[in-house]
Design a protein that fits this description.
- Helix 4 packs across helix 8, helix 5 packs across helix 8 and helix 7 packs antiparallel against helix 8.
- This protein has a domain of about 140 residues.
- It is built from 8 helices and no strands.
- It is about 75% helix and about 0% strand.
- It is globular, with a radius of gyration of 17 Å.
- It starts with 7 loop residues before the first helix and ends with a helix.
- It is mainly alpha-helical.
Length: about 210
């Protein structure tokens, strides 16, 4: 029975299930439209599970004021994007090139109107779903057990990296490092929206060109 007392680890895992399932289902698809459709289904499914459980909904969708000046948030975002572009992307490409067998799938490059939709709605959905689950919900689910320090950052970032299992060891490493930076940003900013925006910009730079 879904209630306001459903333990956080249960609904955290529950939200991950459709997202993980969509990764497995979409993996053999080479058609961009089918791949993207399954990806969207999984992410929307995860968000829907959070919305359906009262205790999860209270955490996932609460509004929190930004606890730092806007210019500081902008500086954090700029540094995260720069770190991904000048370290993360290079490391991902180098490691995946050295270990190509670990790359189980490749994000298909859509064209035309589908590319425009994916760059706007699609990447925003990616950023929102992943930040809601791996930053806000994961922090809530684990901090009772490990506190809000290094252990929490390590666990949530490793989970975020593992979520990118299909894209190669390089992508797992990049996502883990980005998970650390994004969690630090979330802890200091308090609000989720600037973290989502930072994640969105990282993905724009990774996928728009």
């Amino acid at each position: 029975m879904l209630s306001r007392t459903t333990p956080a680890p249960i609904w955290f895992v529950g939200a991950l299930i459709p997202m993980m399932a969509s990764q497995i289902v979409r993996l053999p698809h080479h058609d961009a439209a089918a791949w993207i459709l399954w990806d969207y289904f999984g992410r929307i499914g995860g968000i829907a599970i959070l919305a359906a459980i009262p205790s999860a909904r209270a955490v996932a969708f609460r509004r929190v004021r930004l606890e730092m000046a806007l210019w500081k948030a902008a500086l954090w975002i700029a540094c995260i994007v720069a770190a991904d572009q000048y370290f993360g992307s290079w490391a991902r490409q180098a490691i995946n090139k050295a270990l190509p067998a670990t790359v189980l799938g490749v994000y298909p490059q859509p064209g035309g109107w589908l590319h425009l939709i994916d760059l706007t709605f699609g990447l925003l959905l990616v950023a929102y779903s992943e930040e809601t689950i791996f930053r806000r919900c994961a922090r809530h689910a684990f901090q009772t057990y490990v506190g809000d320090g290094v252990a929490l950052i390590s666990i949530t970032s490793l989970l975020f990296g593992a979520y990118h299992w299909w894209a190669g060891v390089g992508n797992i490493l990049e996502a883990t490092v980005m998970g650390v930076l994004l969690m630090l940003f979330f802890q200091r900013s308090g609000a989720l929206w600037p973290v989502v925006f930072g994640h969105y910009l990282v993905d724009i730079f990774d996928f728009a060109w």
